[in-house]
């Protein structure tokens, strides 16, 4: 990719590759890491809250299956639409929008009153997260210098395991005291 300013051509990839990692790039690594951490939390959380919800709503495990499958379906939908949308309107805007939607619908899930409403909110959360994951990876790849790209992406993806582990600790401590909505 090249850009022209005042008649001079700049090779943007070469420009990035020749410099040390800037504070802006480190910020991007941290933000992408947090997005992947949220994904890890989201994937693991239902395993911890499902027994409480099933008990509170007096429903069977098969009835709760719709809720359990909603987020992964949303992930697929979000991932399929994220690429073309990012190419049209920009990766940053799609990423910001998807993280916002994921956050709003995840918080709203705590107020769900039925399996159907929870499934709908989990589906929408999944769409947001499904759009965020590929965009965060691509955005970090574009901004990272070639010599550090693999390391930075690996660091980003360790957030998934951290998120899964953290939610286990948090759920084990919070759910018995405050219930599943917390």
Automatic annotation (TrEMBL):
Ranges for domain Major facilitator superfamily (MFS) profile: 28-182
ATP-binding as UniProt keyword: no
Topology class, membrane: Multi-pass membrane protein
PROSITE patterns linked to this entry: MFS, SUGAR_TRANSPORT_1, SUGAR_TRANSPORT_2
Gene Ontology molecular function: carboxylic acid transmembrane transporter activity
Cellular localisation: Membrane
Lineage: superkingdom: Bacteria
Protein name per Swiss-Prot or TrEMBL: MFS transporter, AAHS family, 4-hydroxybenzoate transporter
Organism of origin: Paraburkholderia tuberum
């Amino acid at each position: 990719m090249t850009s022209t300013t005042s008649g001079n051509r700049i090779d943007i990839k070469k420009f990035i590759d020749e410099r040390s990692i800037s504070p802006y790039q480190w910020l991007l690594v941290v933000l992408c890491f947090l997005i992947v951490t949220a994904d890890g939390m989201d994937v693991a959380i239902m395993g911890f809250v499902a027994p409480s919800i099933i008990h509170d709503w007096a429903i069977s495990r098969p009835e709760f299956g719709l809720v359990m499958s909603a987020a992964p379906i949303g992930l697929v939908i979000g991932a399929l639409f994220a690429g073309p949308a990012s190419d049209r309107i920009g990766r940053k805007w799609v990423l910001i929008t998807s993280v916002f939607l994921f956050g709003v619908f995840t918080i709203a899930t705590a107020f769900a009153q039925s399996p159907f409403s929870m499934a709908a909110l989990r589906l929408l959360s999944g769409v947001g997260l499904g759009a965020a994951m590929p965009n965060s990876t691509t955005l970090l790849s574009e901004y990272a210098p070639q010599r550090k790209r693999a390391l930075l992406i690996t660091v980003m993806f360790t957030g998934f395991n951290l998120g899964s582990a953290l939610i286990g600790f948090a759920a084990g401590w919070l759910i018995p005291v405050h219930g599943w909505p917390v």
